[in-house]
Amino acid sequence: MDSATTQGAHELPQRITAGFEKLALALKTSVWHGASSAGLSATQAQIVALVAARGSRTGLRLADIAEELAITPATASDALRALVAKELIVKGRATGDARALAVRTTEKGSAVAARMSGLSTFLATAVGELSPAEQEALQLALVRLISRLQDEGRIPFARMCANCVYLRTHVHADDERPHHCALADTAIGARDFRFDCPEHVRADAPRIAAQRVALGIAIG
Ligand code: SF4
User: 187, 174 in Cβ contact below 8 A?
Assistant: First the structure.
């Protein structure tokens, strides 16, 4: 292998990372404009979107919000106070634990969250222009990267199929959808994998490791 090829192999991860930075900047800018036009800070907008997506039935606790968004409980508490004052969030009791406090979106908050969810549509449209094979390869690469970064504690635990107790790997003789979601009782493939599934239940560490091996995304 010549030196230019060796150098290129080493530089490729840096170039891809620079590409991720461009995408992150586009998303951040879009969220910032959307939040600002709704009279919210970026953190407040993220909380409204998270509570609307996850807490509609059971409510979300402050500690869960802080963990999911990788912010301190104090920051989450300040943002929630502002959202309650803006009548986007209400506090109440958590379903299944009458002693615990949980928050839910109001009707007004749900409408704001629906607007927020459209802020990343531009990127989904661009991804949709990749070929199906490119999309599937990208999906699996993202599952692997996110798994690695969550193992290192750099990002919050993601509610992904790869680490869910309901995943059954390689149980169908279908190349496109060889896996199974035992909760939905349906065949799934890499193209169906979720990154933030509201029904997700965390598997234990040995099971997660085994599922990663079965999916071909083992870390290390
Ligand atoms: S419950 Fe959700 S995260 Fe779990 S396997 Fe089914 S679709 Fe995936």
Answer: yes
